[in-house]
Amino acid sequence: TVFEILNEAEIRPHKIRYYVEKRDPDFEEKMTTVLHAILLQNHLNPQRIVE
Prior knowledge:
It is a single chain. By secondary structure, the protein is an all-alpha fold. The chain has a domain at about 25-50. It has 3 helices and no strands.
C-alpha cells in the first residue's frame, strides 16, 4: 500500500511545513496577476489554447 511505501522510506509529507502551508504572503496577488495575463493572451489570440 501507499502507507507501507511511505512508512518504509520514512517519508512524512504531513510533517513538512511548506507542503501544507503557503509561505508567500503575496501569493494571491501574484496568482491573480498571472491568471489575468493568461486570460488576456487567450482573448488576444483565441486560436492558441493554454493548458
